[in-house]
Structure formats: C-alpha cells, structure tokens
Amino acid sequence: MTLKYITFSISICLISWIVGMIVNAALRKTEFYGKLSNISLIKSRKLNKFIGLGAFKWIVKNTFFRFFNPKLQLQSKATTEELIELKQKMTIAEISHFIGFIFVMIFAMIKIIRAEYLFSLWIILVNILMNLYPSLLQQENKGRIDRFLKILSKKEAKRIA
Fold it and tell me: DSSP readout, the chain?
C-alpha cells in the first residue's frame, strides 16, 4: 500500500510541474504576477538552514537534479544583465513550483477529508520535497542575486563618480 502512495505522490507532483508552468504562463500577463513574484515565504537565513534547505541545495547541485533546469545556471562570470535575466528565470521556476505545491495540496486535502491520513502524509512529504523546497531555494538564490546586484551597483556608482 505504501508503494502505491509514494508512486501516486511522485506522479501527481510531476504533473503539478506542468500545471505550474501552464498557470504561470497565464499569470505572467497579469498585474498580480508582479505581486506574486516579490513574495518571500521565509526571509530568515537561519530558518532556511534549520529546515534543511542547505542540504536540499547540496542535493540539487550534486545529483542528477542539476540537469532538470540548466537555464538556471551561470557558466562564467556573470554581467549585471545576465544576473537580472537569471533572476527572472528563477522567478518563473519559483512561482511554477509554488503553483504546483498548491495544486498537489488540493489532493492532500481531499485525502484528509476522506480520512486517508497516511496517503495524505505521503502526498504532503513528496510535495514538500518536489515543490516547496525548490520554490524556497529559488527565493534564497534570488536574494543572493539581489545582494550581489546591490554590490555591483555600488561599485558602478563609485567608478562613475
């Protein structure tokens, strides 16, 4: 029975990635998207560390997961324009995963309503690993890019002055 729960959970999360991309593409043309792209679920680096985001980041960087979205990697020393473009791509990935997370949580809630608690637990656990943590990781990386862009702009301002 548990194998059935795990395979269903993984399958629905994979489907949620497609749903997330489709809904995200539709949302990008709205004013709401600007608000959505600036949401930061966890602002504290300590909390990110506490929930294991660092370990998750290591797994993404050092396993086959690094091949999932090669557009989110820099190949060399980045220019300001490249960093801004990378941040935009990260925002798309972040919001797609977050939409996918909400989509899968609907299935988990249905299982809770039907009193299928173990099934719901597996859905939630897999969803956290496949949708929530990637979204949180993108948020953390966007913050790092913002800090780096701020440093670059200060250096540019000193060079001009």
Answer: -HHHHHHHHHHHHHHHHHHHHHHHHHHTTSSHHHHHHT--S---HHHHHHTTHHHHHHHHHHSGGGGS-GGG---SSPPHHHHHHHHHHHHHHHHHHHHHHHHHHHHHHHHHHTT-HHHHHHHHHHHIIIIIHHHHHHHHHHHHHHHHHHHHHHHHHHHH-
Q: State residue 74's pLDDT score.
A: 67
Please, are residues 87 and 145 in contact by the beta-carbon 8 Å criterion?
yes
Q: Which residues of the chain have pLDDT under 70?
A: 71, 73-76, 161
Place of tokens 């859905």: 123
Q: What is the dihedral of CA 53, 83, 43, 54, to 10 degrees?
A: 10
